[in-house]
Each structure stands twice: as structure tokens, then as C-alpha cells.
Amino acid sequence: MGEEKSHYLELSENPVQFEHASSVNNVFFDEANKQVFAVRSGGATGVVVKGPDDKSSVAFRMDDKGEVKCIKFSIGNKILAVQRTSKSVVFPDKRSLKLLKNQSINVNWYQYCPETAVILLSTTVQGNILQPFAFRNGTMSKMSKFEIELPVIPKPAKLSLSERDIAMATIYGQLYVMYLKHHSRTANSPSAEVVLYHLPREGACKKSHVLKLNTTGKFALNIVDNLVVVHHQSSQTSLIFDIKLKEPDCAVNTHQPVLPARSIHPYRMPLAGPAVVPSQPPVPCQLYSSSWSVFQPDIIISASEGYLWYLQVKLHPTVNLLQDKGKLMDFLLRRRDCKMVILSVCSQILEGGDKGSLPVVATVFDKLNQVYKEYLEAEQSYTVAMESGPSRGSAAQKRPVRTQAVIDQSDMYTHVLSSFTERKEVSHKFVIAVLMEYIRSLNQHQITVQHYLYELVIKTLVQHNLFYMLHQFLQYHVLSDSKPLACLLLSLESTYPPAHQLSLDMLKRLSTANDEIVEVLLSKQQVLGALRFIRSVGGHDNVSARKFLDAARQTGDQMLFYTVFRSFQQRNQRLRGSPAFNPGEHCEEHVVHFKQLFGEQALMKPSTV
């Protein structure tokens, strides 16, 4: 596998570009608005603000009143706040401020999570007692404080928890405080780890996950698609962890990296400016540079080069890096853009055509159908709730969101199974085993099997003359009854005569009325089959000749039209002593058509007794 194919992380294709940091240009980042501020000469020669998209770009000037320590906009760029000293913030727009609430607390440093509006304060001499506050609707509420377990307790006590080693992020909809616990020679911990503390809105904050890094050095953290990404500077690689993947051989909630460490995909910076020669190649970007700054959840900024990227996960390279296909499915099903990758994995597993892979196939089908079933149940309960109307005291139910992880029967049929059944080099026994495995899994999850899957089974059996197996499948109701299936069986009558009776038995079991069976057969252009059926139930004398002649003519088969026409002439002769049609039967156009095709002499003559 080429190196190119194994990078499962990449930087966004269209980064936000800004003037790089220099002696005259200071760069700031606002995590709430995701805006980069480039401040030239204290603002006197201009401030350029760039957001996640070009539409949010703003440029202005302000008086140089000293070095800018921090600069931010309020949401919607309405109010600008500038900090030049450690104890004062200036609002260029003159406004009055009102104190809503104050707390007296000694703070070493703080971190703020804009997505959840939670601020985290480091308190005490060692700094490892963290006090969170939540903001909601203009009010501030104190949450439960908690302690970060330090690898070594210093004596005498001193600040031991750095702001650099703490990050807050939402993973799978829950807020976590991530602590980068460095390796300590004295504490007998051979390598660094990331400890996750779950911070609920109500109740105590608990240590919930430990991510084993198996190395030491400088690290930085991102969250992408609910994965914890740990960048390691000295090896210039990154690791990814999925806290929902349970490790069988580890203590509860201790996680190893999902995949081997890999570098972020190489990135080339296009050259810009008037001096650029068109043939000049783009310059490779130095990945994992010491000038990189990492922000939550998925932002990487290179101030020295003037780039802001979003980190992204590429799923295709993960397929060959994770050999355990069950674990791979668990991993993929939780990712955002997973559908086509999952379907390609299903095709890949079937490619070998090996009986030994059936247990793997079964595991994969069950994992997919579990998610499919959960979605169907959520959709059903939503429908029931909507039909019964809103009940008192219950919150309005939201329509379930269909994520890409919902792989339904038409997805499997279209992208995997139909092409798989056509592969000549795969043994037909394996093909049938796989189809039956998928049907078994659907039945096990109480999902109604769509008739086109049964049709695929039948066509495969017929193709390989496995009629005895077809008979058994029908006899033991492995293939569930349905009208489309009955019609398919009828069409097989010429290659397998018992199919006719099997089909009629199925239609009878479905309590189908005789005239409806005729309609079904005619709609499938099974005209002779319909004729034979109506004779077998003794209804031939009363059926509309025109309906059959219409259907026969539509097939474009002249001999079929001849056979059906002569059949009804014989009926007329038997019932009325004349082969002619009565005016009330409206068959005149068919008589004309018959004469045009076969000539007047081909018409049946009245027979005299």
C-alpha cells in the first residue's frame, strides 16, 4: 500500500489565509467566532479580521494606543473589545456595562468552551482544582468543582497544572475536559496519556476515559468527527482514539489508538503575489511545525505562514489499516460521511469469495442492520406520536435524523449484492450463502425483507439450475410470500414447470382474489399463464376476452396474439355455437388486427354439428 493511501488525516483544501505574524503584524485568534485578527502597528495601519468563510472578512483602522494583548468581536461583529493592559478592556463603541454577578476566587488561568458556554478556572496553589461555570441566557451558574489527578505531588506546593495541558471539547454530544498527563520518571508511568473527565450539566465531574499514547514528548489535541486526535511533534505523526470503541483486553474505558500512527497528509501551499511565475511549483508546508497553534475542536493555525486550516478525517485509508472488520464497522458507523466507504468494505469482504469469511460477513450484516433497525423504530415511534397528536407534559418529538450510517436494503442491493451475484469467478454456493445470510440478519432484526432480495436469490438459484433448493426454500418459507415473487415464479414456468403451481399456491396463501391474480399476471405480460390459471379455477367462460387480447397485443408477440385469439374463438364456439365475438365484448379492433396479420382465411369458421 502506497504511503499516499495511508494518511487518514488531512488539512482542509481551502484554508483561511491572513498576513503572517511579523515584527509589525500581530496575529490573534478568537475561538468563539473562529476569527483571525491581523493587527498591524497596533491597529494604526489596519486590522484585518477573517472568519471561517470569506463573507465574514472585515478591515478597519484604530488609533495606536500601545501594544494589543487581545482583540475580539462580539457575536455578529457588533462590538469590538480590545485589551492593552492586564487589567482593562476597551470597547471602541461607547457603551455602559452592568455587573450581573461576581465571584471571588483566586485564578491561575482559565479556559472557555464557546460551543457549551462553559468557563473552567484553575484554582489552588497547584492549579489542579478546576472550577467550572456555565452561562445560559445571561445568567452564570456554578458547576461542581473537581480535581485533576497529578502524576506527582510537588513539595513544596507549586503550580503544576499548565493551561497547555487542558482542553475542553464536546465528544458524542457530551462535554469533556481533556488532560494531557505527561510521562513522569518518578511515578513509574512509562508514557504519556490523555485523561478525559466527563463534565455533565448537573452532578459531579468524573474521570471516564484514559487514552494511552505509548510515547513521550510534546503533544496537541483536536476533536474531529467525535474522534480525539493527538498530534506528536517529535515523530511528526498523529493518533486517533474513539471513546465508543471498547478494548476487549483493557481495563474499562482504557483506550489504545484505533489505527497506527500516521502523519497528516502532505500539504502544498500555492504561491501568491505579483512575483509568482506560473510554472513555480507549490511549496510543501512544514507539518507539525513549532509555530503551529492548535485550537478546539478542529483548527490548526500557522501564524508564521498565515494559514488557518480545519483538520479532516479521510475514511478510505482506514479500511486497510484496520484488519478486524467488525471493529472497522463499529468505527465507520460512527463517522459522518461513512455510507460509500461502508458499502465498499462490504464489497471488499465479498471479493474473496471464501466460505471462511461467512462469519465476518454475518457480523458486518448484523452491525449494519442493528443501526438500520434503530432508525426504523425511531421513525415508527415518531409517526405514531404525530398521528396521536401532542400529549400533555411531553416534549414535542423531533423527527429522527437519517444519518449516513443507515444502510438500507436498497443501498445493499444497488451497491453490493446485485453486482456480487453477477461475478463469474465467485462460487454460486458462496453467493447464495451470502444472500441468505443478509436475509437471516434482516429477519433476526425483525426488518421486513424487500421482495427484490428474494428475487435475487431465486434468479441465482435458477441460473445454476438449483431447483431442488428453490423448492425447499419455498416449501419451508425461507422466502416469504409476496405478489411480485409469485409473478417471478410464474415467469420461470418454461425452465421449471413446477414453478407455476408454486406460484399459484403462494398467491392463494396471500388470499388473492382470482381476478386480482389474473390482473397481476397480465401486468407482468404472463398472458398464457393467466389463461391457464383462469382455466384451472374454472373461470374461463366468464372472463373478458378483450382484456386478454389487449395484453397479448401489447407484448408485440404475433404468435402469442394468434394463440389467445384462437382460444377465445374456441370458447365462443363452445358456448354460443359460433366463434364470432358479441358486439358487447368490444373486440372489433382485435378482429381487424388479426385479419391484417394472418388474413381472413385464418379466422375460425362456425362449425356445424
Automatic annotation (TrEMBL):
InterPro entries: RMC1 (IPR040371), RMC1_C (IPR009755), RMC1_N (IPR049040). GO terms for biological process: regulation of autophagy. Residues 27-95 form the Regulator of MON1-CCZ1 complex N-terminal domain. One of its GO terms (cellular component) is late endosome membrane. Residues 335-582 form the Mic1 domain. This is Regulator of MON1-CCZ1. It comes from Amphiprion percula (Orange clownfish). The lineage of its organism: Eukaryota, Metazoa, Chordata, Craniata, Vertebrata.
